[in-house]
Each structure stands twice: as C-alpha cells, then as structure tokens.
Amino acid sequence: MKHVLTFKLCTLLTLAALAASCGKAIPLTKGVLLGDAVVTETGGTRTDGANFGQIYPVTQIVSAPSNGIPGWNYGPGGISASNDFPFTGAVKNIGQAVTDGQTAFLFSYSYPPNNYLLSDAHFVINTSRDSSDTEGIFVDGVFSGRQPSGMVNTSSPKLTDSTYYQGAWPTPANKNTYYLDWAASHYKISTVNSFDLNLVDLLAQTAALIEPRTLLNDGYLPVVTGDDSPVYQALLVTHGYTISRFPLTCSNSPNYTYQNIFVHDDGNSIGSPAFSGTVRNARDSWTLARDPTFQSVEFFYDAALPGVPADNITLTSGSLALTLKRGSTGASAIVINGVGIAQAAFNRANATAVVETWIEDAPTIVAWDTFVNSIVVNDLTSGASTNATLNLLTLYGATQLKDLLAQGKLNISIAGHIAVASAGGYSSSRHYSSTVAGPELTVTGNYFGEVCQVPNDPSSPLQDGLPLPPGGLDETSPLVSSVQVSEITSTSAAIQWLTDEGATSQVLYGIASTAEYSSAVDPAYAIFHRVVLTGLLPYKYYQFQVKSIDGSGNITLSNIGTFRTLR
User: Which helix (H) or strand (E) element contains residue 115?
Assistant: First the structure.
C-alpha cells in the first residue's frame, strides 16, 4: 500500500515549509537559566459566555496481540513472492525467542473519523539489541535499518519502500537507520529496554515520505522486526487533539511496564557546565591527569519518561552505576539538571549559574555523604577503583526525580575529590560496532494512559476547509480562547488556540519579551490555529502571545504566556 504525503496544519512540514508558514525562530542570544517549568494557558470559553468549546489533548494506546499478522502467507520462506514477510527467517510471535528471524505483530484499532488532529505517533517496543548491529524494521510497507546479506525478502508483495542497507558503518546518507541509531545512542546491548520510536523518523527517507495521519486512517498497521531482537511488548501510542464543548469521557488504559538501561553521552546538553575550573567528560576523565585545583566530570542521558502525564507514572527504581576513583578525603558534590547535593565542607563558590538550587535536607546530605565515603581513597594514577551504585530514587525522591527526567535529558556533574568517573569506548562519537562502558542509568517503572473518546463532529474546525472572511461591516475583534502550549522539545513548541470567527494566525515570542521575535503570518482564515516555533534554545523560558486578525482587520492579542524548552 503506497501512501501520499499530505501534511496538515504544519504537523510535520519540511524545514523550508515550516519556516515559511509555521514560524521559524531566528538565532537568539543566550538567555539566563531559570528554575521550575511554568506553562500558562488562557481562556477556555468565549468572553461573551457562549461555550464555543476548547482544545483537548487526546492519547490513544493500542496493544498488539501476540499472534502475528493474520492472513499473511509465509509460503516456503526465503526470497519469494509467495512469502509476504519482509525477512527470510522464521516468523515468531511476541514473546518468543528469535535468531536470524523476524517477529511480526499487528496494530488494529478504530481511528477517529473526524474532529481529531494527530500530532505524533510512537511505537513503544520492549526489546533487546544484540551486538551484531544488523536489526531492521518493517512498518506497513516501508523497510528501514541494516540487514545482513540474504535475510531480506526483496520479492515480498507487502514491501513498497526500502531504505535499509547492507554493509559496514558509516551509514549511507540516503538510508534510514533510525531504529538502530536509537538503540546505539540510548540503550545497553543484550538488555531488555522500552524503545520509544517515533513513527515519522522510522519512515523518513522513503520513496514517498509517509504522513502518520494518512497512514493510520485505515486502522491497520502491520510491523515486523528482524534479526536477533525478540519483542516482549508492543504498543502504538498516538497523541492528538480534539475540540469539544464538554469535558471528554475518558478511562484509564491498563498498566504497562518499562525498563531502560541508558548509555551516556559526554558533556552536557545545554552548553554550560555546572562548575567552573577544569571540566572532564566521563571517557577522558579516566586517562587525563587530574587538575589538582578543582575539576568536575560531566555526562548526560537521553532519558525521557513515557509520553503520559507525570501523575500516571510510577518509578520503581532509578539508579546510577559508576566506576569511581577518589583522590583524597576532601568534599564532593553532585548536580543533576541544576539541582545540587553537596557534602558540608564542599565549596559551593565553584558552582556556576547552571546550579539553580541546593538541597538542604539533612537526610539527603547524609545519604550523599555516605555514598562518597564508600569510595576508597586511593592513588589516582595506579590505585584501584570502586564500583558503586547511587540510588537516585532515594537521593532525590520520586517526585523530584520524575521532574528531572521530564526535562528530556538528564545532565549529571560530579565535582570535588571524586576525581574520575570511568567510561570506555565511545560515547557521543559512538557508532554501531562500539560498546559503551562506564556510567549507566537504570530507570524502571509502570505507567498508564488516559484514553479519551473523540466527539463525532463533522463540522469541527479541525476538518479540511477554512471559513471565509465575514461579509459586511465588522467592528468586533475575534474572541481568542483555549490558548495552549504543546509538544515542547528542546528546540521547538506548538502554540494552539481557537477564535470565534475566521482569522489569521501569528505568534509573538522571545526570551526577554514577546516583541523579540514573531512567527510568519499564516493569512488563511481559520477557527483552529496552530503555529509551530522552531530553532529555539534548549532549557530557556519563552514568553509568547498569540495574534489573530479577522477579515475586517480587527486585531486580537492574547494574554502573555510562558513555557520552558526541554534540555
């Protein structure tokens, strides 16, 4: 089945189109780092008392059954048109071991026929990656990844687009290895992890780039993973929006479990260290001489939580496995995403503005002090190292640890007389055949989604077709309601709102003032408005204000709201 690229309302435009019609942020000067995230929303109903409705976020979670893809023919297997499957190996179901084979599963669901705008779709697949680096994935006609010779069924009638490759690293520029790249840059090998895979990224660089809304409309999504990675649980998670005059009817999904053992990247994600003086990364800290004055070691993880509200997530563990050397009995500190914990004698004057707060709670300081004192004091050159596990869940508490993880990346800095945090192999410069050793972050837990019913509304403003400008004399400015920020990343955010009549769309925004920058004006008259801001700086507060002009030139500016980008 071939799909056509038909993006709607800037959902997933190319960069050039995004700059022209959704608002491209021009390079900004560096702002100051701020504290806790705050998002303000404006309105919900019209100021004249009429209930025009508001925009509601909607999550759908579909679990794949374990019985493969009914109706697909395996035939004699191998490379053959009588074999529907994209690989040549034996076909396995969810939960079965697989070696040089394939695991097949099907997402079947009822997709909302109207009044729904899809923002993103993800696979969440509990799987493990072996060290052969040859995994590939097939998604409804599209095959991407890296496969060993002879395992691809190029004659499959189900295969419509191929972007996989065979051969040595590096990846050819015209091939899509997102599935394997994600594994290589995030997760420890030979370990069950919950891969959170963006559907659009999985399908990029195909002969006809596929838009998820079109792809998902038929309620039928076959997926096949190949080679030696068994699948233990497969979910399709979609996020989108609907418009309703009444609160939505929602119910909780079943509980799902997740387990991730993350590998680190060197340095930090916001460009500024937590401490002054010599800053090492985890890999070179083991081999370079220690600065006798003061030094810190920095590394970070792409360790996002499941894409559901924080209240729906329970952390069952959060720990950091470290190999450390300690050069003296002097004091040390740790900072995670700007939140510091230090021994009493530690000189906090070495901290930069990146450290936003210090935890002063006595039990927390005692817990950190106990951990530091468990590291053997030794000669930094030839002395033995200590393997230690730091319990972050105990140290920071479940609520604060979830808040830190929700910032998108976990930046960790260790400073003082814990001189080195060992790491071997590659980190930020890793490639497929590299093994990443050193600090490992383990996060486990369970979560559920709030699955909501989408109202049936063929006249919804989310449908195709835009209102015409009003005729005659109009001296009333459009009424703006349900202003909200969504889909916040480290460099982008979507701003959405409603008006009670057809009006244009624009967002004024900036770090210090809404007058700093503005999106391009979308001149189309709409009731539902969506503007995507890109090119933003990580971990900064932005002020924003929406602006709409009706067909008679009447202008409305919303109240000023704020949001903070992720790390």
Answer: none
DSSP-assigned letters across all residues of 187-253 = B-TTS-EEEEEEHHHHHTTSSSPPPHHHHHTTSEEEEEEEES--EEEEEEEEEEEEEESSPPPEEEP
| Cα–Cα distance measured from residue 343 to residue 345, given in angstroms and rounded to the nearest whole number | 6
Are residues 188 and 263 in contact, defined by beta-carbon separation less than 8 angstroms?
Answer: yes
| Neighbouring C-beta atoms of residue 471, cutoff 10 Å | 8
For 374, phi then psi, to 5°, come to -80, -10
Q: What's the pLDDT at 36?
A: 33
- Output the CA angle 343-345-349, nearest 5 degrees: 95
Residue ranges covered by each domain of the chain: 15-53+459-564, 58-244, 260-447
Count, residues in the chain: 567
Q: Which of 353, 450, 457, 375 is nearest to 116 (CA)?
A: 457
Cα separations (Å) of 492 from 38, 483, 521, 566? 16, 17, 18, 9
Please answer whether residues 320 and 395 qualify as being in contact, where contact means their C-beta atoms are separated by less than 8 angstroms: no
Contact between 198 and 122 (Cβ < 8 Å): yes
Which residues contact residue 422 at a Cβ distance below 8 angstroms, ignoring those fewer than 6 apart?
282, 285, 286, 322, 323, 324, 325, 385, 437, 438
The whole-number pLDDT of residue 552 equals 87
CA 340/CA 334 separation, integer angstroms: 6
CA distance 321 to 340: 19
In angstroms, the CA 478 to CA 21 distance is: 21
CATH number of 15-53+459-564: 2.60.40.10
Judge contact between 424 and 283, C-beta under 8 A. Answer: yes
- DSSP, collapsed to helix, strand or coil, labels residue 8 as coil
CB 86 within 8 A of CB 160: no
Note the pLDDT of residue 80.
92
Q: Who contacts 396 (Cβ-Cβ below 8 Å, separation ≥6)?
A: 318, 336, 339, 359, 364, 404
Q: What is the pLDDT of residue 257?
A: 93
Task: Give the residue ranges of the chain where pLDDT is below 50.
Answer: 1-49
* Residue 415 to residue 298: CA distance in whole angstroms: 9
Q: How far apart are CA 376 and CA 387, in angstroms?
A: 10
Contact yes or no for 124/194 (Cβ under 8 A): yes
| Confidence (pLDDT) at 213 | 65
Token digits of residue 197: 């895979």
The residue written with tokens 């003061």 in the block is 294
What H or E segment, with its residue span, contains residue 556? strand 555-557
Residues 301, 263: Cα–Cα separation, whole Å: 7
Facing residues of 415 across strands? 296, 333
How many other C-beta atoms lie within 10 A of the C-beta of residue 437? Answer: 18
* pLDDT score of 510: 95
Beta-bridge mates of residue 411: 300
- Whose CA is closest to 390, among 323, 325, 321? 321
